[in-house]
Protein 1
Amino acid sequence: MIKNYSVFAWRALLKNKLYSLLNIAGLAIGIASFILISQYVLDEIGFDKWIPDAENIYRVDGDIKLGGDEMNLAVSCDPMGATLKKDYPQVDQFVRLYNSNGSKLIRKGPEFINETAVMHADSTLLDIFPFQILAGDKLHPLDGKDKVIMSEKAAQKYFGSIPYENIIGKTIETDDDPKFYTVTAIMKNMPANTHFYADLFFSMANVNYDWGNFLSNNFVTFIKLQKGTDPHVFNKNFKTVIDKYLLPQAQVVVQIKSMEEFEQSGNKINYFLTPLTSIHLHSNRTAELGANGNIQYIYIFSIVAFFILLIACINFMNLATARSASRAKEVGVRKVLGIDKFNLILQFLSESVLMAFLSTILGIAMAAGLLHYFNDLAAKEYQIIDLFSKGWILAFILLPILVGILSGLYPAFYLSSFRPIAVLKGKVQSSWNKDRFRSSLVVFQFITSILLIIGSIVVFKQLNFIQNTNVGFQKDQVLILDGTSALKSNREAFKNEISSLTGVSGSTYTGYIPVNNSARNDNTFFKNAVLDINESLNMQVWKIDENYIPTLGMEMVKGRNFEKEMKTDSLGLILNEAAVKLLGFDDNPLEHKLYGGTDIDKGKVEIYNIIGVVKDFNYSSLRKKVGPLCFSFGNSRWSMGFKVKAVNTKNLIGQIETKWKLLANGAPFSYRFLDDAFDEMYRSERRIGKIALAFSILAILIACLGLFGLASYIAEQRTKELGVRKVLGAGYGNLIALLSKDFVKLVLIAFAFAVPMGWYAMHKWLQDFAYRIELSWWIFALAGITAISIAVITVSFQAIKSAFTNPVKSLRTE
């Protein structure tokens, strides 16, 4: 029986080659899209789940609000992990990760390499993250000072292809203090689906830090709880930790009676646990260890994957029913010969399942062929072998069965329901008004397509707004040189030589760049000499020189810039407008003073004069409102910024590199343009926009195949009507319009549903940006016009073909 079904199904495919090709191609595109998007989604939701006991590992995060400015931190204070382990038996172990500068210079031969994938870690690193150790100490390789764990990649880079066992005990040289670290372990390269990445882990004992400070938050702290511990219940312990440890240290420095009084004034200090497996998709806090994903995009892409596959299945239904007239007599003959409805349904389902299997094979081939381009689009490193894991192999077996049954079920019941007498007399035509089910399927397809078009337009319009909006500083043609601390005593000479080059119009020492993941230094200032915590404001403090503001094109709205000759400027501050507003100094900020400093816990309180106010500028992503910030006078010498002219930039960079090599003692030459660093903040949105555009095109392509199928169906049903109209004098244009108008109505109905849905979805997405575009009416109009144009072009082919058919053939009695 199965053999007979298969033979009949194969013959049916070969008999109608165009129909089969359209169906297989549509399903294959849908399946390929489904595979690629699903691979992306599965990879994203799988982050950190490879770690044993990942469900019991948590990061200690903090929310701190002082004077109206709130910090949402992925870091906590230095003693937090040790304190939790000491005081609470539910904590099995903890580890801290620390990376203050973001990179280390490591010598290779006569030159240094700037390594950015570096961290300091506690000796308990492998107790929390059991990376596979290939050689060396497998328990506590970071126990003590001057030790380093290297990945395979780093080991091969610095020591070549010698056996890993021979590398253990060797040293690597850095550009800081200490200079030499001993290699104690070689680990397997970290999996890509980990929310942070490092090639070198250095001993935490080498970090030069004021240990035991509960008031500063600089360490990423992970703890492992005993199985069965409820993290929500455990979070209540942080109040005790704050009262017992943090409050006494704070009271030495400032006036604060209790945390209750502190919170009643509108401030807060709160710590809580974030599950390790939630960090990648649910966390976007200050001082993250890497660029995280976004759960909203996972929801969106999951829905898109499902709907693209569903659209492909709908195409099958439409194309199958479009052929109803041509297969009606076949059904009638089979029924007259005694084949019952159940066997007819099985026959038609066997055709759809066979077609789904062929489509799946082609879809897998398409997905494999497009994987390289998808990797570029999604910033991933998937390999073809990833598509043949056990899970995917099972999916490839079940997918064509499910898709085949889903796609073929309605056509099978529809075709098998024909009455033999009626079909043998040719009475199978049905009016357009009764084809509501098929029409609703097309409406659904175009709702999905229009939503994707609206989404693509809004994403790209928001990105264009970000690139062209006035962010309060000049981001174009500003060249940033990183790692300039390697110049040491040659810094001034290098800066002066570069400043004298033709094409350079400004220069500054600038470790603080107005982009995400730049240097950050928060400090608390007080409005009065009596350090009352309720009269304080926590804000970022950037050390800049007198050239920083003019080089970056910032605008002074009150007061003056720093002056090198003014010795009193060492205790001067330039506030941004947001800080002035939060401090309540709107009347005349230059008449006020602030109190504080970095050593107030040691009894040293500085008095700062406000010498100027700079216009607010976006020093981080446009997702956030501009917060309070101040400039203090000094030098942040690990980077330099140069204002350059656009003429022959490549030649100018070459000259700068030449002078660098003469003065930098083998340090690597690393540069970037400020506008590129600014655009990098929106890499995720840009990537999502490109992916959405790509799959919008695919969804529209698949929908057009479905539309073509419905157009074929309608043309078949109205063949004689068109012949009569032509005999009565109807023109080609009238006939084409007659066939097209009903499809335009369907798209207009889809447009009416898609507009409110698209507006709501995009409105919610834009809420992530503090500065955003308005959802103009033309965005939705453009999406509608695009969809209608595509529909008309698709239908026109079949309409023109029917309009030019000889009416004699249309009216001939069969």
Protein 2
Amino acid sequence: LLLVFLLCVGCLGAGSEHVGDDSAVVAKGGLDSPPVAVAPFLDGVLPSRTPNGPGSSTWDVVPAFPNLSLTDTLVITPNPSNNRLYVGSRDGNIVSFDNVPSVSTTETFLDLRDRVAVVWDGGFLGLVFHPEFGQPGSPYRNYLYVFFSSHCPLNVARTGPDLNNCDDDYPRGSTGGFFNTYLRLSRFEVPDGSSTADPGSEEIMMTIRLYNGSHRGGGMVFRDDGYLYVTIGDQFKYTTAQTISDNLEGGSIRIAVDITENGDGTWSCPPGSHQPIQKYDSFDEISGRFYCIPEDNPWLGGGNFEEYCSIGHRNPHRLARDPLTDRLWSGEIGESSREEINVIECGNNYGWPFREGLIAGPFSPPSTIIGTVTDPVIDFLRTEARAIIGGYVYRGSKFPELYGRYLAGDYATNRVWAITLDENTMTATKTYLANFSAGNLATWGQDNDGEVFMGDVASTGPLYTLERVSDPMADAPAVLSEVGAFSDVAALLPSAFWVPYGLNQPFWSDGADKGRWIAVPNDGFRDAPNEQIAFSETGDWTYPTGTVLMKHFELRLDEDNPSVTTRLETRFLVLGDDGEWYGLTYRWRPDQSDADLLTTAETGDYTIALSGGGTRNQTWYFPSRLDCLQCHTVAVGGAAGPRTHQLNGDFTYPSTGRTDNQIRTWNDLDMFSPAVDDASIPMLLKSPALGDVTAPLQDRARSWLDSNCSYCHRPGGANAGFDARYTTPFESQGLVWGAVRDDLGMPGMVVLYPGDPILSAAWQRTAAVGPIAMPPLAKALAQQPAVDLMAQWITRVVDPPGSPNDPPVLTNPGDQRNRQGETVSLDLAATDDDGDSLYFDAAGLPEGLSIDHDSGRISGALSVLGASTVLPAFPTVPRSRW
């Protein structure tokens, strides 16, 4: 159903034509011309860039404590029990000071310069206090943990450093191999009543050899689970990041440090943990001291180093915990193609070295991949960043427009960004903030109030922080009636500058009726590039700054009477002068008199009268501003709907009563640059509607996937495993046999399994609501006609020539007969032309038999009499009987 609104353009009606005056109205196509003038941002009423977002302010980097001089800062951390900050220099001298801008003095807290080796890309790398540090009565009130490179070997007892035999001749420059230096995790104590740590209290927890020229890691945090997390780089070894049995490199570790010491050098583990089984245990390498292994770590036993939380890291230099969500963030320094930001969870494999950012890495995947391969939330081209330095999620009060954003910078390009995470897709966008003018950004810190600091690793300067140069952009009007989008809000009469439009196959929105309009800035003539849309036949269109799209939603409240509706929301999508799109949602009041601007997501419940009697309840999700950007991404060009194949169709214009092709009408209004050849319009690609029975079944299904999935599933999108765009030929979309990240608990699941909707993720997610639903946002109802059509299509899909992955072929073993209690041993035979590893499965095996999924051997002893029909889980061969 298209909502019909009165729209006055020129107000002279259909069929009239005035000649001789430049401002004369010409009746042509669907709408009269010239257009009604409208300045950018709806005559300047809407903000010129994202309101109250990071990019709505301008920023600078300034000294945070201008009266302090701090040398070669590499670590910044707060004391959890007071307002002091602790700063560690690269050479191992840690000082503390009061966290006030006017502070002018520091106090030495711990001096480890006698044991810290300032190797290339090394030195004093990490410090974190126990969460109960300073709490009277806590057995852990005195503890802090540090991570550093050292040129001092273990003492004879292998409990502490041998400070009398430190190798002062270690190389300071980048070099290869092992050169008598180590990476060391140690615990120190602050005596009761003292404000300084005792350097003689060092208990070495782990010492491993330091190799090569770089990638040490050193991020350290405690999470809400009470465990200590530490990141360790791959030390330029590459493949160690994919192994967990012979090293502790290229990953994050998770250990329980709340041990009970027995007084004899041994310790007892806290509940839910155990003593490490696999350890470094040689004259110069040790691990497993004064900590235990959490029982829910992902890779226990099997000869593994059980400390691992995640693997597949190259150089996770910094690690940060969001104090609100408890989520772990890390910046990951790349090699030659991408830098990346990761959200770290245990059990995940972040892909190095067979992945680098969102693309393939320099090495092939291992034959067996451990853990869940996980992409970064965002990556950076090497033109943007060449040594990413991860920061913190801002939780301070000084800059509301940064709240909840992860801050990161780059050591090489000196840029600083705010990263905005989409919680639904776990992908992010970035906003450039400022340059780190000091020039050697190597670390970040965050105080107990959530404010952030930056450290310069090659100076004697102060710490730095962000400063707002200009105030944030003012917000949009608080109520819809003040926007000027409607000349009569109560009657819902759109203002005259809008051009209404419809889509051949709209995005599914839980059955709501929608109306759409666009306002492209113009002075009444559209004779300049800043007044026209850059047209593309098969690509995304680009728009002038200040372009606004409006979409209005109404919900039918009576299935028998479509005229009984309620206004839900009116949304705007706006292209700012910074090149970024932003979204606004206005929620209609219950009395339908006006709509109020939302700043966060909301929900509302509505009662629907059912056909034939009875009612049902429907919950409507009103999206937040960040939700809008889940679909309207940079990869899709911002405006996800209007494009050639979607607008290439007829539309009846309420203001004139005329029906015409939308491409032709927009072209007649001079909205395109270059102009479209009128004669070519019938040859332009056109996507069919779901219910257009005159169109091929496959085209209708692909059109639905295009409108509901292609904003993410496209090259450069958040999930580019396949290409859902209708403009991409079917054989090039990667749908058939396309790999999936989540098999939904069904081995053999692929994007599209020819002939089998059940094993096709495209069908499963179309039919689903909840976490696995597609589209993923604001979907409380499945679009049943789409579910049915997708099933019909998949059942009929023929594997296209040149498919990127042909299915395996299983040889039919034929009918089998065995006596009760008889031992069975049957080897299934299968081949795969692609060389993929095979997974065997079967349904309906007689009781007592089982199948080895790797070898395909069916074995066991028949425990009952009778006949069984055995089916392969992958239906490529006839059934067999037993």
Protein 3
Amino acid sequence: MRFSSHFSWTLGLLLLSLDVANAHAQEMAATADSAVTPEQLTFFETKIRPVLVRECYGCHSDQSGQNKGGLKLDTQSASLLGGDSGAAIVPGDLESSLLYTAITHQDFVMPPKRKLSDAEIADFRTWILDGAPDPRVSEAVQMPSSAIDDEVIARAKATFWSYQTPTIRSPQDTTSWATTEIDRYIEAGLTSANLQPAADADPATLLRRLCFDLVGLPPSPEQVRWFESAYEVDADAAVERVVDRLLDSKAFGEHWGRHWLDVARYAESTGREVNMTFPHAWRYRDYVIESFNNDKPYDEFVQEQIAGDLLPAEDDQQWADHLIATSFLAIGTKNLNEQSAAQFAADLADEQIDATTRVFLGTSVACARCHDHKFDPIRQSDYYAMAGIFRSTKTYFGNPPSDYGNFIGVQQRQRSSLLLLPVQDEVAVGRAYSEDEFESLKNEIQEKRQQLVDLRNGESVAGRPGASAQQMRLRINNELAELSAKISVLDDDGKPRSYCMGVQDQGTVGNAPLLVRGEIDQPADRVPRDIPAVLREDQLRIPSGSSGRLELARWIGSDQNTLAARVMVNRIWHHVFGQGIVPTTEDFGATGMSPSHPELLDHLAIEFVKSDWSIKAMVRQMMTSRAYRMKSSFDVTSHQQDPDNRLLWRANVKRLGAESIRDAMLLTAGELQQEAPVGSIVADAGYTRVRGESLQDPRDARQRFQATLTSRRDEAAELMRQLRGGSPRERLVARNRLRELGGGRDRGSMQQPADDKSLDQADSNIRSVYLPVVRDFVPRSLEVFDFADPSLISGTRETSNTPNQALFMMNNPTTLRLSQSFAERLTKEASSRKDQVSLAFLLAYGRSPSDDEKRVSFEYFRGTDLDDDQALAAFCQALFAAAEFRYLN
């Protein structure tokens, strides 16, 4: 096709607005049978090649030296690979074949200024639907050799611990200290090292540990008093009752579901260069919480997240839950600015392979994308055996197409649709429009489309003074993309429909080619879809026409592999005891650490499967053990022999997670909203680009900024008056607030005012698990206390002790607000200062104050120049800021 220089730019613009939702199909295009029959050869040479040579090669071939739009059409591989906006040819799929949509003038005009004859278009239609048989096969790329042969794999399976089937190996005889099977394994390890277990913790310490480990919240004063009495009568029965009651609490799923969201890299935006929101990610969050509360068998939990769309369902509600579960594969980071759709599809499959294998199998198969794994017996061909499964999978993560036109922002080159749920929300989630608003939205789209037509015809369009026609086109196209995203999720009455992220099998499935050095333009032979050889006994049996994802899910969620149960019980152990039996929770390979108690790990894995994969049963076993009750007291001799406490001679001191710190402050202050919210503020904002720390309509941003600026100037003037003549407490608050208004924090400062959709939600009292998790804009109250990076698989969070944390507890408005609420609660519930001090310690630390703490507290109240209310608020803030509030002993 011959293009004018003007058309080459127009092509680039219009390709950006094309819906490339089936990027996976583009990558899988090469799965078509390469054998060409004589009849197909004749058809291609007489009907297809002449048109390509005459109309296309001038701008899209090696011979002409042109590849406008990154596209060449003179070889089979180049046509299948496509250009900047995706594959030109997708065998069997007209809608995804950009060459066909171009010659039919569906979205833009090729050839320019005229159209192919109806007979020629019909020939291309027939050819593509027939599988696009093409004799122009390039010289094959040589398959790289592998140093990992069958003998290496067999030796690894026979000798390396994680590849062997778990077996029961009973521990040696133990003393009366051990009360459970877990204790016997722990004591055996300690005895072999000539170590002794620490004494039992006191009841108050143990109860606080139980409450935070099970539900992420502190015990109430009533719970403390009851437990201390019951523990004296029958310690075992008291512990079991607390464990059972907390396991039945909905707060259990909120706390333990958050652990899973860490490894599932849960977030509500794409991250990367163009950070677009995921308005329906919250459904996966709620699915995870509900699964933990319902004690969904872990094997089912696994299978639903990998292949829920392919599992049988009893009714529409279960079918909807299964679809939502597959958000696990769709929720990772994405580079929407990637020019090549083929590269985007390959990267997407790579991210899914990495998440699936590390989360469920503790194995990083993605390390073999470009070459054989450097340490584990995983060949590059093993990687592409799995790649075929995921490249045969279509991922839905973006926004559905609009009946009023599909537009895409200039910087957002890759996009996809969503899955419409079979069950609609009882309460609609998202922005609803009145009849007038809905009509106005449609009219605005028509007006913007007409402006594009006017610009193409050389007419002027009102806009930014001095802007060129090209700049105006880009701006209008971006505005149309946002308007299209808003209207596409609405029904005919302007109410939001219920969608979810997720995956489904492609219409065309098949094996993936091995990419030499991982380069998209170096495809070698195709690799049959399968699991890495070192992890399996038999090959996957994948039915014709299936991606193999269902077979993969059923294999992972079964006792046929050696890793799934081990990996999960190790994760549970990590959260219960503070360190995994295998500390490297995502790496059970050669570069990971070996298990401290391999026999115990096997025992737990076998018990896990026997319990019908019950997570609650496994948690209960661990928390009712004697080992869980130990003190965290330091012992010099034991530390010298086992400095990392891998043999568990004492309880590990644990820093509370960021969510537990915030939630504990809210609960202690009497402000925690324990009812779960519906949806997320990201759902209310819709599919949009994240700007600064708030989700704003760009057309309203300047107006909101000016209003916020005026408001803050007025506030600053009042604060200056307080600074000159207020009380010491007022001066402290004023100084801190002025620092914020002056830009002490980049985000949330006057340079980027937050609106009613602020991602921080500092004034919200909902549990932290329901706060928005937008990549690169995690709420400050979570970020400062080592919240898991939502772009990464985080089985083990980092734990730091930084000046920023101390400053947060001293100056942050949330801390000041909750300290005041804490003081007001004490005033309401305790009449005397003595009772207030005792209640404060009981609420904050789950224990009564010592005599020294009482003395120091009363000395503070007698010596301060603050009034009674201010003094009590400052006292409460000091309790929040102390290390004991943030740590579990």
